[in-house]
Structures are given as C-alpha cells and as structure tokens.
Amino acid sequence: MASRISLDLDVLRSFVAGVEMGSFALAAQRMNRSTSAISAQLKKLEEQAGQALMRKAGRGLVLTPAGEVMLAYARRLLALNDEAVQAVQGSGLEQGWIRFGMQEDFGESLLPEILGQFTRAHPQFRLDVKVARNQPLLDGLAKGELDLVLAWDGGQPWPYQQVMGTLPLCWIDSKSSPVAHVPDSAIPLVAFEAPCLMRTAACSALEQAGLGWRQAFCSSSLSGIWAAVAAGLGLTVRTPLGLPDTLQLRHDLPALPDIRLMLYRAESAAATGCERLAEVVSHALDGYLHGLQRY
Description:
Layout: H1 9-21, H2 24-30, H3 35-49, E1 54-57, E2 60-63, H4 65-89, E3 96-103, H5 111-121, E4 125-132, H6 134-142, E5 148-152, E6 161-168, E7 170-174, E8 187-192, H7 197-208, E9 213-219, H8 222-230, E10 236-238, E11 247-250, E12 258-265, H9 272-290
Parallel strand pairs: 3-4, 3-5, 8-9
Antiparallel strand pairs: 1-2, 5-12, 6-12, 7-10, 7-11
C-alpha cells in the first residue's frame, strides 16, 4: 500500500499568505522568514502535489488550476487547525457575555461564519450581537454598551482600533432596470438617511465632476437600499460586500475613494473572550476580503 502524503500546515500557511498578499516576498516579511525559505516551502508543496501550483505571468506569479484547488483546501485545513487550537486553549477560559456590533453589510455574508466558528471553539461564552449602521454602533461603543465593533472608518479617533482592510466604494445599479446616464440630468441616488459616509462620498464625487443629483429614495435599512436599486429607482454607493445577484457595478461615473474597515474595542474589552472573538473576526475577514479582489 502506497504511503499517504501528509501536507505540512506550516507550508500551507506560507502558500496561502503568499497568494493572498500577492507576493511571497511580502509573505516572508510577515512571517519573519527569508524569501528563500518561503520559496523552499513552495517547492516542497509542489513536489508533494506532483505538479506546479504557480506559473509566471509577466513579472509575477499566478495560480495554476492545480494551485487554485490547493488554495481552497489549504484555507479549509488551516481554518480547521486554528479552530481546534482555539477550542483547546479556550476550554479553561472564563465564562460570560460578549457584546459584539457589526455593520449591516456583514449581517448575512459574514456573521454566520463568525458565530459558527466562535461558538464551536468557545461554547462557554455567549454573544449579544447588534447589527446596525455605523453611527449607532460607535455610539454604543462610546457608551459602554458594546465590547467589540466591526464598522467603517468615519474618521473618528478611537484609542483601541485595528485596520482590518481597505475596500473600494463602487457605484451600484440594477441589472434588469439600469439607470440611464443622460447628460445634464440629475443622477437619482438611493441612500441611507443622513448622516451616511457613503452618501457623502457619492454626493462629493458627483459635485466635483460637475454633475447634479437628486434624492430618489431614502431608507433606514440596507435591505431597503438593495430593493430600491434593484427596482430601478436609482443608483447607490457601497462596497462590493454582500452585493445581491440582482445588482451590478457601474464604471461610467466619477471615481470614488476607498474606505477602511475597522475593528474597534472598548477600553474594558481586554478580556480573553474579546481577544478570541477578535481573532475569529480577523480570520473570517482574511478569506472573505480576498474573494473581493475580482472587483
């Protein structure tokens, strides 16, 4: 019987880091290793796979079909490994409630994964989750009503914060009933009630380009925004996160800025439970944000 190949999780972690960062040299710096050591790990992984996982494309490297398969399995293996470690290390942690706030953009797409990973690894903790818009979340943090908040960077200074990623703001339109861009006519906007970071970005971009706009639909919920855009009432500005299949990106309107995604912690959130939840959120975001590169 032929001996089975056991993949090295350390090698897989270097492989995933190199692909997600777009550079194995950067991955080497992040993992405190030499570039030659990372290259040796990639060579070892390719030898175990029996075929090339990366190929040259211009000055860089891209995944081969076999590399894409390996990447998917590597992420699953690493996630299971990290979950097992968290479960064992957390088995003796204190019990209690953790109050977690999250932007609406992540309510359906990311929240189930975070809840599943955390509750499996740390069943002794209970999560009190609030899904809302940016300002109510930050207000809750300031009032001591929340311990951890995943929200957009609105420029408010906070002593305990961590940048989780940077995403593009995009013009979003209906697939079935797109809005016609008629010169000299006001652009119909679908947006949240003020104050809203993305509404402000949309209005500023249009005004700087000398284009007029009008409020076509106003909502207090993200589901309302998506429904109005899908119906053809107007355009909205959002990141590609959780974009419904009924909507599409528009590329013929003024450029929009990027926006940072932040993880905010209350001053009292140094407890082990909050630290573990922050790790789960960070891990879930790594793979999720990487999937948005196609935009």
